[in-house]
Amino acid sequence: MALHIGIIGTGWFSKVHGDILAAMDGVRIKAVSGTSAAKAQALADRYPGAIGFGSLTDMLDAQKLDAVYICVPPMAHGELEAQLIERGIPFFVEKPLAADLDTPLRILDKLQQQPLIHAVGYHLRYKESIRKLKETLEGRTIGMALGTWMGDMPQVAWWRDLQGSGGQFVEQTTHIVDLLRYTAGEVEEVYAAFGSRLMHQVHDNVTVPDVGTVTMKLKSGAVATVSNTCILPGGVNEVGLHLYTDMGILDWQPQQLEVVAPHQKTIYHMQDDPYVAETEAFIHALRTGDTSSILSDYADAVKTQRVTCAALESASTGKPVQLNQ
Question: Of 108, 245, 294, 299, which one is least surrounded by beta carbons within 10 A?
């Protein structure tokens, strides 16, 4: 029996996930829901037999689905997840979980009351380079970490609105925060300084900061700094996580891992597709009930959301924020 999958959202990520799913044996895209039936059908037309719907309720009423992929902007979360949980339909949800913390906490409460198979799209956890990084760290002491997400401003209106996206640290840099937690451990204190240097002069209705640095104390005693900006021109970017340990420096970038030890430098080049890996883990769980290959569940993703939202709070108040996770 083929698995029948629905997709919520009609943007770029919906197409990425839809194409990967459609290429898998025994998986069919059956339905797409969007802000209009026409937009949903335009994406559904990529997948033979798929039907577009103007709302999630219409889609779920009309189709019997084995799971749903949620690929919507941060401010659109909440009711979508609640409806799927109430109907007992497994879901894969793209990061971030929302533009705030209260929404994910409500969803997590519902999931704990009505558990079902689910996964969160922190795809970088599935990179072979991250697996190698964690393996290299075994038995080592991390002293500090530096993370970066430097790039340009996405050309969508909701991203520039703080209420829509939560800002760059919540919407993009969340990946680096998540990898920091995944490789170096939990965060217990956050202090952030954000600023608006340029983008509010370049684009209309910009309410998100365009530069920011966040300093964190980890429960292990290590310290970390994660910085981001969206003022760079298109095509210029820097994304990475650098860990400083008693054995040397581990310099992670999306396509490689560089390990610098005394008198030795080793570079691992890895071109694997983590989007495929995360979907394979989710589909395996749907077929077997075995969720052990899913590397990010909702409860864990809430911990990342807690850190990024604490950074927003700290930048607003000018004071450190203590986390109780």
Answer: 299
Answer whether residue 23 shows pLDDT above 80. Answer: yes
- Tens digit of each residue's pLDDT (9 = 90 or more) over 185-231: 999 999 999 999 998 999 999 999 999 999 999 999 999 999 999 99
**Residue 192: both structure tokens together:** 């952030």
pLDDT tens digit sequence for 139-170: 999 999 999 999 999 999 999 999 999 999 99
Residues 6+ apart with CB under 8 A from 255: 129, 269, 270, 271
Q: Strand 211-218 to strand 264-269: parallel, antiparallel, or no bridges (unpaired)?
A: unpaired
Assess contact for 57 and 32: CB atoms under 8 A: no
Tell me how far CA of residue 13 lies from CA of 19, 20, 40, 308, 320, in angstroms: 10, 11, 14, 22, 34
